[in-house]
Design brief:
It is a single chain. The protein has 283 residues and is mainly beta. It has a single domain, classed as Lipocalin (Beta Barrel). The chain is 4% helix and 47% strand. Strand 15 and strand 16 form a beta hairpin. The longest helix is centred in the first third of the chain and has 10 residues. The radius of gyration is 20 Å and the shape is elongated.
Length: 283
């Protein structure tokens, strides 16, 4: 069995039958279509990934983290509105890599950014950006707090609905009747924020525990043309969804520039995951 996509959030109603009627397919928050899109939005949320504040003004830090992504449960893998009648085969990559940049600003503020350029990886082409702005202040040498707001925008394109393995040319009334893979698009559209208690222990170990809210209105558009030349460009439109989020993160400094990072991140209604990575302080 071949692993289809390196970017886990790209595979939403993967290998699902193309919708016969073109147009818009609104779905409510309780539909499996919405729950599946929410499931794959969670790995895209721009969380602190182990480092929250603590940067001096003018300090620049490069980081990378890898998010572990479980498969969705069978309960949400069977569509209830737009793709009725077929279990989804959601083959996912187990990880989602993400580079990011942090910048220390005056008066305790800090900024963060992430960008994945439109370079094809396996069968997916991302074009995603995340941004965050925060404020951190210490109570004393060991304890402090931080506030942080974040957003993730952009899209992922690829043969999500009808990839090579799903194409067939013998049954016009069945899904994926064609000889060209689909070019589908997923947009996460995430905005969120969190408040955190931060701490420092023994100099080289820092950490935080945070709680927040994440709101998102994802969009998934089919892009499949069958052998008869008919285009299915159905747009699956979930309602806006809001989730409570929680995270616990830590960074261990090997020296004054290099640190290992880790975070447990949870959107309890959708999924819980672990992010592991590192950070390098340039200055």
């Amino acid at each position: 069995m071949r692993l289809r996509l390196v970017l886990p959030f790209a595979l939403l109603p993967a290998l699902a039958p193309a919708i016969q009627a073109q147009g818009r397919c609104p779905v409510d928050e309780n539909s499996n279509e919405a729950k599946l899109q929410a499931f794959y939005a969670a790995p895209l949320a721009f969380s602190p990934s182990g480092v929250l504040g603590g940067l001096q003004p003018g300090s620049i830090q490069l980081g990378v983290d890898v998010t572990l992504v479980p498969e969705p449960s069978d309960d949400i893998s069977r569509p209830t509105i737009c793709y009725v009648g077929k279990d989804e085969n959601t083959r996912l990559s187990p990880v989602f890599p993400r580079p990011h940049l942090r910048l220390g600003l005056p008066a305790g503020f800090f900024a963060e950014a992430m960008y994945l350029p439109p370079i094809e990886v396996a069968d997916a082409t991302p074009n995603l950006a995340s941004f965050a702005l925060g404020f951190a202040r210490s109570f004393n040498e060991n304890l402090g707090y931080a506030l942080r707001a974040h957003t993730t925008v952009g899209q992922v394109k690829g043969p999500i609905t009808c990839n090579t393995d799903a194409l067939q040319t013998t049954q016009p009334d069945e899904p994926c009747y064609g000889d060209q893979v689909s070019e589908d698009t997923y947009k996460p559209n995430i905005i969120g924020g969190e408040a955190a208690l931060t701490w420092r222990w023994l100099g080289g170990l820092t950490g935080y525990v945070s709680a927040g809210l994440s709101t998102f209105k994802p969009r998934f558009q089919v892009g499949f043309t069958d052998l008869d030349g008919d285009l299915d460009n159905t747009l699956v439109l979930p309602d806006r969804m809001t989730r409570f989020t929680f995270s616990v993160g830590s960074a261990y400094a090997i020296n004054r520039r290099l640190a290992f990072t880790g975070e447990l991140y949870s959107a309890p209604e959708d999924m819980t995951t672990i992010r592991l990575g590192g950070a390098w302080t340039i200055r």
